[in-house]
Amino acid sequence: MAASNGRRVSYFYDAEIGNFHYGQGHPMKPHRVRMTHNLVVNYGLYRMMEVFRPKPVNAALLTRFHSDDYVNFLKIITPDNMHEYLRQLQRFNVGEDCPVFDGLFEFCQLYTSGSIGGAVRLNQQWSDVVINWAGGLHHAKKSEASGFCYVNDCVLGILELLKRHQRVLYIDIDIHHGDGVEEAFYTTNRVMTVSFHKFGEYFPGTGDVHDVGYDAGKNYAINFPLHDGMDDASFKSVFEPVIGKIMERFAPGAVVLQCGADSLSGDRLGCFNLSLRGHADCVKYVMGFGVPMLVLGGGGYTLRNVPRVWTYETSVLLGTEIKDVLPYNDYFEYYGPDYRLHMPVSNMENLNSKEYLQHVKAQLFSVLDDVEPVPGVQIKSGDASAMDTSADNAAAAPAAAAAAPVAAAVQEASESVSQAEAMDTNPDQRGTTDNKEHPAEFFPSGAEGGGAPAAPPS
Ligand SMILES: [Zn+2]
């Protein structure tokens, strides 16, 4: 099956996702993914792509990035027993922004399985583009929940892609800085992270233009800090040149695009002024490079607008036009009074002057000029610089420990997840490896130059 543009597009969705609740009054509503799916179906877009229900990944897979004790905690914590875990709740930052709710671990499994399963499909070259609107939870840290995110499916998807691709590009257009992903890959040159976000007295507070990566990862973290009121023209004026230059210098084998919808005009938590077209133009531009792409959701807190933009972006990825008049769907009443796909932007002031945008763009261009045009990133057998960094320079590089997952992914390269494992909708068919212990294998002797098999399988 191919889309109008000839691309093979796959779409991951699990009908359960909309049944999870963060709690009354919480701005993050998984229901928006169900609303998106319903609109996608009622526009008939499902006919142009392959639709998969992901098989939930097991806990051991999550520990490719997250710590064992954190994953175990997510598995056992429930609203009923949380009073017995006060110390851990604090330690893992679970409770307030990231509440404990019924089915929390299952929720994490569902949204993450689409991203990992999607990466597997791209690796196998079964798909050119994979969409997982339930994913994109970019704030989660190795041992900490953050900003409504518990498990970082972006990081886990990238780790899967690194099994096949020497270089992976992560692009983040959520209004918030993609801090969890940046931190995970801060010391490696195999993943470039680029984030366009509101900066200055705004969550999570990181993402300064001068934060460019560390050690081997220096110049491989790109941050474009922005002010309130970003509109379509301003966004395009920086997004396209920066991404264009990155594609040229970094030449990634795969791209992960986080499409947080809180950068849209009128978002409950956001302060940008993008239209659906402005947001989707980023997707279209990246798609134009023809590189395998994993497209994820993310933030988005004005419930009626999130399905609008993600549905529209699904159509863009399929290379097809959809009508502005919304088809009847299960959530039609949300879209009044206009019942149209596109929505007007506001007249808010754009605090990003042309001069400011030009200045930051020039700063980032000079960082990118220092990136090897054809990166010499072939990892030699026994090259374990990332591991050395985490051991010796932890104080100098707080994010350096996060390089370990990259090394782990490289180490695991020979045991790639089979399609069946990632996509099988019958969980009983496979043996569980949830309790698999792996104290040593994630920190292989390669750290001492022992020669861990490092090259990804071709
Ligand atoms: Zn966000």
From TrEMBL:
Keyword Transcription: yes
GO BP field: epigenetic regulation of gene expression
Cellular component, GO annotation: nucleus
Pfam families (alphabetical): Hist_deacetyl (PF00850)
InterPro entries registered for this protein in UniProt: HDAC_I/II, HDACs, His_deacetylse_dom, His_deacetylse_dom_sf, Ureohydrolase_dom_sf
Catalyzed reactions: N(6)-acetyl-L-lysyl-[histone] + H2O = L-lysyl-[histone] + acetate
Binding residues annotated for a divalent metal cation, in chain numbering: 174, 176, 262
Biased composition (Basic and acidic residues): 431-440
Chain segments carrying region Disordered: 410-458
Active site: 139 (proton acceptor)
UniProt keyword Thylakoid, yes or no: no
A GO MF term: histone deacetylase activity, hydrolytic mechanism
Domain Histone deacetylase: 26-316
Domain of life from the UniProt record: Eukaryota
Its EC number(s): 3.5.1.98
Compositional bias segments (type: Low complexity): 410-422
Subcellular localization, as worded in the UniProt entry: Nucleus
Predominant place of localization: nucleus
Annotated binding of substrate, by residue: 97, 147, 301
Keywords carried by this UniProt record: Chromatin regulator, Hydrolase, Metal-binding, Nucleus, Repressor, Transcription, Transcription regulation
Family statement drawn from the similarity comment of this UniProt entry: Belongs to the histone deacetylase family. HD Type 1 subfamily.
Name listed for the protein in its UniProt record: Histone deacetylase
Organism, as annotated: Pelagomonas calceolata
